[in-house]
Each structure stands twice: as structure tokens, then as C-alpha cells.
Amino acid sequence: MANPLFPVPKGTETVNVRIIDTTTRLGKLPLDFLMEPAMKGMQCMPDMPSWSFLIEHASGQKLLYDLGVPKAWRSLSPFILQILEGLATEISVENDVIDILKQDKIKADQISGIIWSHWHFDHVGDPSLFPPSTDLIVGPGFKDTFCPGYPASPDSPIRECDLAGRNLREIDFSEGTKTGRFPAFDFFGDGSFYLVDTPGHAVGHLGALARTTTNPDTFIFMGGDLCHHGGGIRPSKHMSIPSDLSATMPAALFPCPGAEKYEKLLLERSGGLDRPFFHPAPMVGTDFAETVKTIEKAQEADAENNIWFVSAHDPSLLGLVNLFPLKANDWKERKWREQTLWAFLRDFDEAIGVK
User: Fold this and answer.
1) Is 353 domain-assigned?
2) Which residues form the Metallo-beta-lactamase domain (predicted)?
């Protein structure tokens, strides 16, 4: 058997994963704020959800990876509100994640930890709705950069009320564990769930890798904002645009004009067929070189057919996959990876002349 492109340490334990629609929708976010080069017909990003993931371990511990936008987002720190005012982005939120959990009789005090992929407003939610027994789990450099929070530090993007009275746990990746080429932290110590060091987009950016089945092993890779669109990670030198896209696309959702038009568009944009349609825009507060390196490492996971890479704002999941309260562990059997992998191409209809 060939060595995997993205090796993961062996393990016999799994976690249950449930994908939560946080009800966050972000509209009219300028494309050039996140990605380059410009794309005809895409002055703004497609309307973006913000996924949360409920991770349930055999021990009974429950974790949340990301919380979306808080319902009371106007009470975010002045630093964040000033940024949002400048962007003029449309923000819609119907429920906080804790309210969604309650619909399945999961209480706030049953959540042992909240993992922030990073500190941006569309991921942090409202941890103050959880009791002090719920840890807040963050990536390297978070404490030195952001603590104390607002108002103790007037310019901090983080609110002190989200941190007060709870354990703020900053992950240390020095133990040497790796998933693929990423430093990783075996959260439960049994190989069922890893936090992944995915730097670049923001200080302390964390991905997560959940083992969803064994014999054979399958995984869900929660990518956070390491990329913001399927065209920001695909295609790659490990995975080309399929010659027969219709074999992977739900025809009713996405009548496919054929791979050739997309390949022509890609060549015009990047000069090759083994590069993504977009690269990250050099945003304030990010490390561009690290962001690119992180995407390149994640492409190795994305190309493995036993790993389903899900970025935080991927709209292709809507209407295609089972969401909370249903589990996502059977994603491979249900072919969700194949159905969502190239769905982003529909955003390019105008660019290829079919709209």
C-alpha cells in the first residue's frame, strides 16, 4: 500500500461529529478583502454560513469547535465593531449555538470546552452564555496578543466577559505529534481528535481533525479560515479538476457545463492547472507567507479520499449534508465529500460565460 499523502497516527477510537448551522449568514463581503485575483461576477463572496462542530467523546466530554457570530453581535468589542462598520457587511444571526443545542436537550454545562479556531467575530460566538466550567481553548500566542480583553484593554478584539472566571487553555504543540505536516495535539490522548496548528490567517489559528470511523479510518478536517472558498484550496498539485464533473455533482443542483471551461479559466488566472483559482489577499493582522504554507499543507489532506475537509464558511454543505442534531460520521458512505468538493465552481458561471 502506498504511503498516505497526509499520514495520521494510528488509533482505534473515534468521536461523534455533528455539524451545526449556527444560523450565521454573512452577505456582501467584498471578495478582495479575502482573496485575489478578482473574478468576473464575484465582486462579493457568496453568502457565507459559519459552521460549528459538536465533538462528542466516549468519555462523555463534549467540545464545540467555533460558535459563529453571536446573536447579540452589536455588543462585540469596539475594535471589532469599527472593522464591521468599514466593511458594511450584511450580518444575519437567528440563534446562538447554545439555543440550538437546547433543541436537542444539550445544556450549556455539558460542554467541557469551546475551541476558537481564531479570534474573528464570525467564529467566537458568545462564550459568556456558558458556565465557568466550560474551558475556552485557543491557539499559540493568543494570551500574549489579546489578554486582557475589552474593556480592561480598550483596543482588544476580545471581550473580558468571555474569559472571566473560566480556564483559558492555550494549546502547546511542542510534544512532537503530527498529522500530515502539521504539528498536532492529541486532545483526548487516544487518537480520536486532534487540534492542528494552522498558522497564518490569524494569531493562534487552530484546525481540528476528528477520526469518524475505523476499519477503515475516515476523518473530518475542520479547517476554520485557513481558506475561505473551495477555489482557495482547489485544484492543487495533488488533485486536478475531474474530467467528468457531472459524475460528482448533484445534477439538479449544479448543471455542469464541463471541465474544459473551468480549466481554461484556471489557466488564464494562474498559468497552470495544478493551482487554486484564488490566493489569499494580504489582510491586516495575518502572516501571508504562513497562510500560503498552511494551505499547501492542507491540500495534502484535501486530496485524501478518506478525509473530508470542511472550511468554516463553505456554503456547499447547505441542502446536501445532514446537520445537527444528526451525526456526520457516515460522510464517506453518503459521498458528501464528492458532492461538495467541486460545488464551488458554480460561483464562476458568469466568468465562464454560462450566465
Assistant:
1) no
2) 47-133
Q: What does pTM read for this prediction?
A: 0.96
* Residue 80, SS3 per DSSP: helix
Q: Are 84 and 239 in contact (CB under 8 A)?
A: no
What pLDDT digit, counting tens, does each position of 29-56 carry? 999 999 999 999 999 999 999 999 999 9
For the chain, strand residue ranges (E) read: 16-21, 25-27, 35-36, 51-56, 62-65, 90-92, 113-115, 135-138, 168-170, 178-179, 182-186, 193-197, 206-213, 218-224, 279-280, 307-311
Domain boundaries, position 310? 16-348
Phi, psi of 206 (to 5 degrees): -120, 135
CATH number for the domain spanning 59: value is 3.60.15.10
DSSP one-letter code for 157: S
34's grid cell? 479575502
Q: Pairing mode, if any, of strands 135-138 and 90-92?
A: unpaired
